[in-house]
């Protein structure tokens, strides 16, 4: 089972992400190294007497600027759907990207990768030394809370009566959003999610042309059940 991390945003919304595995991070580094090797090979043909001394500095600079300018992603991470995030959920700053890159020297080059892989495999947030120093980790792009409609409910159609016929005008992503927000409120009991549920209930009642009931969660769950009943 994949390890996960819960990140609380500045708006006090908790988002759960899957952490990148050791294998994914090794593959991302391999892809970056292969691409960088091709660039160095080209430069060595053009300026052979100079480029040999610049391999390591250029490799570190590549990671600094790639992760800083491309939203926490190098080429390898982008291909694999991975991203560097600060522990507070924000994108890495220039200083954080610089720290991560400098510590490549200890994590991988001086120790043959042993230190970096050992720390990724044993720390709770899957952090190598550079991540620990910079206050970052590497996550998969998609939140682990993502679900599809088939995972929401199983309804006995023979005994169910639809309450809101117009719910068929909703789309599947709207229904999934409602269910995910309910789940997060039940898990975290956050005022932020409570307010989101009220806002969703207001929007749904307007779309259905009805007055919003006092029982917000019951109302939203009825919408979900009606949608599943009418569209499946």
What does the model show?
This protein has 232 residues and is α+β, with helices and mostly antiparallel strands. It folds into two domains: 4-143, no CATH class; 149-231, no CATH class. The protein has eleven helices and four strands, in the order ββααααβααααβααα. The chain has a four-stranded antiparallel beta sheet with strand order 1-2-4-3. Strand 1 (4-8) and strand 2 form a beta hairpin. The longest helix is centred in the first third of the chain and has 25 residues, at 22-46.
Task: Summarize this structure briefly.
The chain has helices at residues 22-46, 48-51, 55-69, 75-80, 94-102, 104-109, 114-122, 129-134, 172-188, 191-208, 216-231; strands at residues 4-8, 14-19, 82-86, 136-143. It is an alpha+beta fold.
């Amino acid at each position: 089972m994949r390890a996960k991390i819960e990140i609380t945003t500045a708006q006090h919304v908790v988002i759960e992400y899957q952490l990148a595995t050791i294998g994914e991070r090794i593959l991302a580094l391999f892809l970056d190294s292969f691409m960088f090797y091709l660039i160095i090979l080209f430069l060595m043909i053009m300026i052979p007497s100079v480029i040999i001394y610049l391999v390591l500095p250029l490799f570190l600079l590549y990671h600094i600027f790639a992760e800083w300018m491309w939203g926490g992603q190098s080429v390898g991470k982008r291909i694999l759907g991975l991203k560097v995030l600060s522990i507070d959920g924000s994108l890495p700053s220039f200083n954080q990207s610089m720290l991560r890159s400098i510590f490549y020297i200890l994590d991988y080059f001086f120790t043959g990768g042993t230190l970096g892989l050992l720390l990724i495999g044993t720390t709770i947030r899957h952090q190598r030394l550079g991540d620990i120093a910079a206050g970052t980790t590497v996550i998969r792009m998609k939140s682990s809370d993502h679900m599809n409609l088939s995972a929401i409910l199983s309804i006995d159609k023979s005994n169910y009566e639809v309450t809101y016929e117009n719910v068929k005008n909703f789309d599947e992503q709207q229904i999934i959003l409602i269910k995910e927000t309910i789940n997060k409120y039940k898990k975290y009991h956050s005022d932020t999610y409570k307010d989101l549920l009220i806002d969703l209930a207001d929007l749904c009642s307007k779309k259905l042309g009805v007055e919003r009931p006092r029982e917000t969660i019951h109302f939203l769950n009825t919408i979900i059940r009606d949608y599943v009943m009418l569209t499946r």
